[in-house]
Design a protein that fits this description.
Elements (H helix, E strand, L loop, with lengths): L14 H13 L9 H13 L9 E8 L14 H12 L3 H9 L2 E8 L10 E3 L17 H20 L4 E7 L3 H13 L15 H17 L7 H8 L2 H16 L2 E4 L2 H13 L7 E3 L8 H7 L16 H19 L3 H4 L7
Parallel strand pairs: 1-2, 1-4, 2-3, 4-5, 5-6
Length: 351
């Protein structure tokens, strides 16, 4: 029986490059470990890029957008029309991620996987229309298996475009009214934890709204209990098209050897799903920040991830990852351009 593409082996990190980078860190004019996480980031990137002195100057940001049928249960503070409106805003340059991409000189692509409100063709948007959003997972499966596979492939195709453009770092972002409900349900199933520990306000629910959202997710978890043991089945029953695309993108990056910077709660849930599908992809994932959603910390802990930032962000769009890019760039610059003790004629610590 042949393997499905998502089961294919991931690239191995370059141990020689990592070891050389680690040795270089020991020789730079600073106390060992004094740059904290930035030292390990540089070493990790060296292993990913196969060179002692890595760089992340060529950036690819992909925003996957889709609607969620569970919004019919009243779990969002915003109507689904906002998803399409934000697609227009992305390509018009007015969204946060649009501003950040310009500032970083990053390539930005926008992929519409399916909105509930029909959209006119938008220039610079890839309209895939996997469906008019997912179905209401509180009443049945969110999507068919065929739709899940198409969405996974959309993520893989985005990575191919990034590689063709010479990207050194891949950022996936998401947009979709109702997608914190989907991500929370997936996280509960993946971690085996109750919804009350995972569910947050999303785009701005009040206390009563969070309680209602929690009850909806608890009902959905009970409904789909028989299908919660396998990651792809989880994705089909509780996921979103954009979450599936992120999963596919993360897997493809690991298989093709492209470093990933993971954004917030929803992207981290997609990363956890990707790791459950193909565990070897974990080594290709860097994590940008810990967001404001209460479940994000538990997901990060399950991934053994140490995010770079904690700014109480909850915007999505890949914005938190974009904000962390300068730290990665500075980590690489410090690693490459600082003098060694020998070069600077500075006394090294005693042996």
């Amino acid at each position: 029986m042949s393997l499905s593409w998502w089961d294919a082996p991931c690239q191995s990190l370059d141990a020689i490059a990592s070891n050389k980078a680690s040795a270089r860190q020991q020789q730079l004019t600073k106390p060992t470990g004094s740059l904290g996480q930035l030292e390990q980031v540089a070493i990790d990137l060296a292993g990913m890029q196969g060179r002692e002195r890595p760089s992340v100057d060529s950036l690819w940001i992909a925003i996957f957008a889709a609607d969620h049928g569970v919004v019919a249960e009243g779990v969002s503070a915003y109507p689904q029309a906002v998803t399409g409106q934000m697609l227009r805003n992305f390509v018009a340059g007015g969204a946060a991620i649009s501003v950040l991409a310009r500032q970083l000189d990053a390539a930005l692509e926008v992929i519409d996987l399916g909105t509930a409100v029909p959209l006119e063709p938008l220039s610079n948007v890839r309209h895939l229309q996997v469906g008019a959003g997912t179905q209401n997972f509180a009443q049945g499966p969110a999507m068919t298996r065929a739709q899940a596979l198409i969405a996974l492939e959309a993520g893989r195709d985005s990575v191919r475009r990034a590689l063709d453009a010479g990207a050194q770092l891949y950022i996936g972002g998401e947009m979709g009214i109702g997608n914190t409900s989907s991500a929370s349900a997936l996280a509960c199933a993946l971690l085996g934890c109750p919804a009350r520990l995972m569910v947050g306000p999303g785009t701005g629910l009040d206390v009563a709204g969070v309680a209602h959202k929690t009850a909806v997710i608890e009902r959905a978890l009970a409904l789909h209990q028989a299908h919660l043991g396998e990651p792809l089945a989880l994705l089909q029953h509780l996921g979103g098209f954009e979450i599936a695309a992120l999963v596919g993108a993360y897997l493809a990056c690991a298989q093709q050897g492209l470093a990933v910077l993971v954004d917030g709660f929803i992207c981290s849930v997609a990363a956890l799903l990707a790791v459950r599908i193909n565990p070897a992809c974990r080594q290709w994932l860097l994590f940008a920040h810990r967001g404001a959603e209460p479940g994000h910390q538990a997901v990060l802990e399950a991934l053994q991830a140490q995010p770079l930032l904690q700014l109480s962000l909850r915007l999505g769009e890949g914005s938190g990852a974009a904000l962390a890019v300068p730290l990665l760039q500075l980590a690489c610059r410090l690693h490459s351009d600082m003098a060694t003790f020998a070069e600077a004629a500075v006394a090294d610590r005693p042996a």
